[in-house]
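Possible regression after last week's pipeline update?

I re-ran a chain I had predicted before the update to compare outputs. Posting the input and the new output here so someone can diff against the archived version. Not blocking, just want to make sure nothing changed silently.
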Amino acid sequence: MTESSKIDFRYRRISRIDDITDLVEMLFPGNRHQQHAAARILLVLKAAHGPVRSLSHLEDRYAISRRTLQRARAKLSRLGLIEHVDVRA
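New output (post-update):
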């Protein structure tokens, strides 16, 4: 049986979020690659002391494909969790 790709925002599920892994599992159900990319994006943005120009360094450093990185960034942006960040160099 395949896992649903629908985000589950039930109160009880949200109240059990302990860390970033729980958050990305809820936002990207059933897609481990996008979960990994989203977690890396959120951690890079949290650690930055200013605006981040590009996320392209994540591709080589953490072996994330450009497409996966773009899709994760786009979904985070659509959800309003991040503002515009360019994936290209």
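Follow-up from reviewer: compared with the archived run. The helical segments are 11-15, 20-27, 32-47, 57-62, 66-78. Marking as no regression found.
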